Structures are given as structure tokens and as C-alpha cells.
Amino acid sequence: MQVMVTDHRKRPRRRGEALNAAIYQATLDELAEVGYAGLTMERVAERARASKASLYRRWPSRIELVMEAVYSTLPTPESSPDTGNFRDDLVAMLRRTAQALSGPAGEAMRGLLGEALRNESPLNAMRRSSQGAGRKMMEEIVRRAVERGEVDPGDVTARRLDAGQALLRQHFLFEGTPIPDNLVVEIVDEVLVPLLKRG
């Protein structure tokens, strides 16, 4: 049986956001199918029906590509939960994080951290590419809680803002996924609310 190989150069050209979206989706699909260790730029290009050159022009390494693809799926600070109640906002935000860690984002993080432990350059690339989305979402939730009078601005510190996400990552790294919902609720009720909620 003859295998037909389609030349990507003969297809209609995609540019900008359309091309990026196809590449991000191909990256996420590869993460789900073969994991970070098996993901290659060549396989992503083939799956996205794009040229390898188009990938390397945008992302000089697999790390930058994977991080950007994963970030494209994560909630933005502007979409932080707004239930009108500080505690419920925290629970909703940490549930989103737990769900993300159970999918391609978690697979990417596990692979990236494993690679970084063997070589300093991936760690540097991760630091450069990190967008601090978790911290920004927490800042937005706390900002609204301060405006409602639920949180004293004097109680807001960088370490307190990072505590919930750090505890989720700790569980993810040492216990794996899925992250149980009762853990999310315990982190909020036993750590974040006592650290930040007024009275």
C-alpha cells in the first residue's frame, strides 16, 4: 500500500494567530499522547501541518514552545473567579489550578522540572518564560476582597499570595494527580483564609 505524504508547502498558508493556535493545539495533543519526554519539534510541526522552520522562528527550544502552549490554555488574571465572596473565589481559583495540573499543563511541568534538574539551561528558560499567572490571579482576587472590606491590605504579602499555589504544586509533585477537591478546600479554609481574611 502506498503512503501519501502531504507537503505542507502546498496547503493554504496560515499566519499569525491561526498558525500559533494550530501549533499550540498540536503541542498539547503531543503532551497528552507521548508526554514531555517524547515530544519533539518535528512531531509538533507534523501534527500542526506546519514547517519546522516556522516553529524554530517563534520558539528556539522545546521548553519555550511547551510553556507558551500551556500558558495559552490557562485562565488569565482578568478571568479570575468573581463570586462576590473571598473564600469562594479562592476555592474556584485553586480548583482551576488543580484541574490544569491534571492535564497537559501538569505533564509539561513534570517534564520541564525533570529536565531542569539535569541541566541548568532549562531552568533558566523556565524562569524567562514564566508569566506568574497564578500570582496575578491571586492578586486580582485579593484586590477585590480588599475593596469589599474582607481583607486588610496590611495583611497582604508576597509569601501569603503564593501559599495556596505552592501547596498545590507540592501535592502535585509528591503525590501526583488528580488533586483531591478536599485538599483545595483545606488549603483555602486552613491556610489562605486565616492568613488573609479580616476578622
Helix content: 55-70%
Question: What is the CA-based Rg, rounded?
Answer: 20 Å
Contiguous low-pLDDT stretches (5 residues minimum) are: 1-6
Please work out how many helical segments DSSP would assign.
10
Could you characterize the architecture of this molecule?
- This protein has 199 residues and is mainly α.
- The chain has ten helices and no strands.
- It has helices at 16-38, 41-48, 52-58, 62-71, 86-101, 104-118, 120-129, 133-148, 158-175, 181-196.
- The longest helix is centred in the N-terminal third of the chain and has 23 residues, at 16-38.
- The protein is elongated.
Task: Give a topology summary.
Elements: H1 16-38, H2 41-48, H3 52-58, H4 62-71, H5 86-101, H6 104-118, H7 120-129, H8 133-148, H9 158-175, H10 181-196
Helix pairs in contact: 1-2, 1-4, 1-6, 2-3, 4-6, 4-7, 5-8, 5-9, 5-10, 6-7, 9-10
Q: In short, what is this structure?
A:
The chain has ten helices and no strands. The protein has 199 residues and is mainly alpha-helical.
Question: Which descriptors apply to this entry?
Answer:
10 helices; elongated; 199 residues; 70% helix; single chain; mainly alpha
